[in-house]
Amino acid sequence: MAEVRLNYKKPTLHGNITVPGDKSISHRSIMFGSIAEGRTTVSGFLLGDDCLSTIDCFRKLGVEIELDGTNVEINSNGMGNWKEPIDVLYTGNSGTTTRLMLGLLAGSKIHSILNGDASIGKRPMKRVITPLREMGAQITGRMDGQYTPLAIKGSPLSAIEYTMPVASAQVKSAILLAGLQAEGNTIIHEKDVSRDHTERMLRQFGAEVIVEDGTVSYKGGQTLQATHVDVPGDISSAAFFLVAGAMAEDSEITLHNVGLNPTRTGIIDVLTAMGANMEIIVDNEEAAEPTGTIMIRTSDLEGVQINGDLIPRLIDEIPIIALLATKANGTTVIRDAAELKVKETDRITAVVDELKKLGANIEATDDGMIIHGGSELQGASLKTYGDHRIGMMGAIASLVSNGAVELDDPDCIAVSYPTFFEDIQKIIK
Ligand code: S3P
Q1: What structural domains does the chain harbor?
Q2: CA of 170 to the centre of ligand 1 (A)
Q3: 375 CA to centre of ligand 1 in angstroms
Q4: Whose CA is closest to 270, among 293, 236, 316, 303?
Q5: What's the rounded mean pLDDT across residues 187-205?
Q6: Beta strand extents in 89-196 (DSSP E only)
Q7: Phi, psi at residue 12, to the nearest 5°?
């Protein structure tokens, strides 16, 4: 699809959606299955471009990975037996692949080169390289390792105690994965807790991890046991339909098998605080990753304040929350979210510029944005900046805008939600 013109004419939205697998957990399932010796199976895997990049990288390390729909089978001889890749490990658009692999490769026995697309080439890698170098990693790259391409010469590592300067699960996970091969106890302190999928999956694969008051610690040298991973639906993908259901007239949407890990449910807290007409049934609280069903109906919404430790729990949802806030009564203020500037694109600038084109009353700040609600949205030609979440924000806006919305690059949405447009069609009445 080159460009797309969406002219839905304010439909009502009704029906059921089972959102595709969680991106963060899908990546990790491949990584953990490649670390552990033996056969790991995965169900509900996300067939998004980012997760396919992770598969491609581990195949280049000699791990056997077979895909059958959303089921994956991984057969690995264990991380100590990864092969030196004869080609660059290409991570595409995926920050998670790039940063977590740095942690894994740092303590390996092999030499490798990581590179990604133009967006990855602009994303900060120093935040990962700095703690890894403290552990003894030998990593070189453009601007002293600030940017890809990066070359990693696997070397012996020693565990560190590290206080996270920014809330980032990618940085935390890179250190934890390097810590697997390090001598001693890896200890990480987080001021604001970021998503904890790595900690949960380490336990699922048999490792002992201690989490207490924002500190994660565990002992290096633990061996992971191959297992089965059931990937829940991605709450970050569900978020687009939660917002659509709340904004569109006379609507009711039910989302099934949504991951409800508390480190990811900031969007639910925001919808609740805004007064959304929503019901949640938790299906599976005891699982490694809890899941549930969420029903959302057309809602009368109030503006809210979003900041502090809530930010890491909804960082990827801010574009779609900003759209929702244009339809609320009153003002929504988003603060403490400067991290948005270093996502797939600068999401403060992208969200503000594109929502303005639709007629929103929104302004950028240094660390977030201020949205004055109650706007009637018009049609416009929008840029995605090659960023899946900006593309989906524009597409959802088209469901509640008076005219057609054009998107320059809808294909970028396949990074996290390849069936997004089919799912929209399912609920339009
Ligand atoms: C992710 C962590 C977050 C998030 C990204 C996925 C992960 O990034 O924005 O989409 O899977 O660990 P940061 O760690 O940079 O905050």
Answers
A1: 4-20+232-427 (3.65.10.10), 23-225 (3.65.10.10)
A2: 5
A3: 31
A4: 303
A5: 98
A6: 89-90, 111-115, 138-141, 147-153, 157-158, 161-163, 182-183, 185-189
A7: -90, 155
pLDDT class of 284 with cuts at 50, 70, 90: confident
Render pLDDT for 316-342 as a digit per residue (tens, 0 to 9).
Answer: 999 999 999 999 999 999 999 999 999
CB count in 10 Å sphere of residue 180: 23
In tens, the pLDDT along 4-20 reads 999 999 999 999 999 99
Nearest ligand 1 atom, CA 172: 14
> Has 300 been annotated as catalytic?
no
What's the mean pLDDT in 155-163?
98
- How close is the Cα of 311 to the center of ligand 1, in Å? 12
The response to whether residue 123 sits with its C-beta less than 6 Å from ligand 1 reads: no
Ligand 1 lined by 98 (C-beta under 6 Å): no
Take atom 4 of ligand 1 and give the residue whose Cα is closest: 316
Kindly give the number of the ligand 1 atom that is closest to the alpha carbon of 173. 12
Instruction: Give the Cα separation of 174 and 98 in Å (integer).
Output: 9
CA-to-CA dists, residue 357 to 343, 365, 374, 382, 401, angstroms: 21, 18, 16, 7, 11
Q: How far is the CA of 24 from the centre of ligand 1 (A)?
A: 7
Q: Is 315 close to ligand 1, i.e. is its CB under 6 Å away? A: yes
For 97-143, write each residue's pLDDT tens digit.
999 999 999 999 999 999 999 999 999 999 999 999 999 999 999 99
